[in-house]
Amino acid sequence: MKRHSILILLFIVSFSSAVQACEICGCGNSNFQIGLLPNFKQGFVGFRYSGSQFNSRVNSDPTQFSHDYFKTMEFWGGVTVKRFQFMAFLPYVLSRKQSDDGTTISNGLGDLLLLVNHKILSSAKLSANETRTFIQEWYFGGGLKLPTGISRVNATDPDFNIGDFNSQAGTGSVDFIINTTYNLMWNRSGIVTNAAYRINTANKQDYRFGNRSYIAAAYYYTLTKKEIKVKPNVGLNFQSNNVNTFQGTDVAGSNGYTLSSTIGVNLIRKDFGINAMAFVPIQQNMYQGQTTMKTRMLVGVTYSF
Questions:
Q1: What is the rounded distance in angstroms from the CA atom of residue 99 to the CA atom of residue 102?
Q2: Domain range for 217
């Protein structure tokens, strides 16, 4: 049978402090979500588009607000060499911020992400009555996020706003990712769970996004009709982040968490695939309740070889 693997990794939100004119905002830089991988034999290449919206309003002064819209066009791909998966992701980010200060538009290349995952467990067995097949896969790995993206914040500018760090296409820092994924499949069904941790470093302006934690679980089912496979999936997605710092000082209130439900589908015909995923917030506490994620969606196409 074809090699099948699923990895759900890091979807990140980051935000900053409200001290002056609406410095809080949703964050689009380095937002990252793999979702269901295609059934690739040796490798795959793909393109996907994602969009998200964050709304912010300062509790102590409702006249200070921000509506942030992020769109990402991303090329991604991977190859399998024995028990190793090598993957790369290169995004182009378009952001638009509408706030009490006016409208700011920022477009540019994002940060390159490189991942290596090792399959440390792979087993398959039949049930006692030979009517059900159980397959287990366990991956462990990590990677680097390189500062290839645009990050042009000038902290000496009189109009500098600490929230500007969130509106850049890149973070300007080298970051490290550790992740593990366990996949259990039986016949046409499966459950995948993933935990990941991202260790961030400071950029040249001495701004450091807090480390990120990520836990997700999803159930999927495979429907087959002639040469087409349909794989709907539903799950839960939890992310939390530690406090951000600027020049060694904590950005007050910049830690938080988001719990979302996910729903998606993959359509596969031979080596071509179309995938879509949506995130629906269930509970969140970002920037002391002053920032909320409103929507997030993703669509893409892949070719496996």
A1: 5
A2: 43-304
Closest CA to 25 of 111, 97, 103, 100: 97
Q: What sign does the dihedral 152-153-157-158 (CA atoms) show? A: positive
- pLDDT tens-digit readout, 163-175: 778 778 888 999 9
32 lies in some domain: no
Residue with the two structure tokens 């496996």: 304
* 145 close to 177: Cβ distance less than 8 angstroms: yes
264 DSSP assignment: E
Q: What is the pTM of this model?
A: 0.82
pLDDT tens by residue, 220-277: 999 998 899 999 999 999 989 899 999 999 988 888 899 999 999 999 999 999 999 9
Q: Has residue 37 been placed in a domain?
A: no
Contact (CB, 8 A) for 277 and 262? yes
**Residue 106 to residues 47, 258, 294, Cα–Cα distance (Å):** 21, 25, 20
Residue with tokens 């892949």: 302
Q: How many domains does the chain have?
A: 1
- For residue 33, tell me if it sits in a domain: no
Burial of 131 (0-12, 13-18, 19+ CB in 10 A): exposed
For Cα atoms 96, 97, 100, give the angle at the middle one, nearest 5 degrees.
150
CATH number at residue 154: 2.40.160.40
Q: In terms of Cα–Cα distance, which of 95, 23, 29, 106 is closest to 65?
A: 23
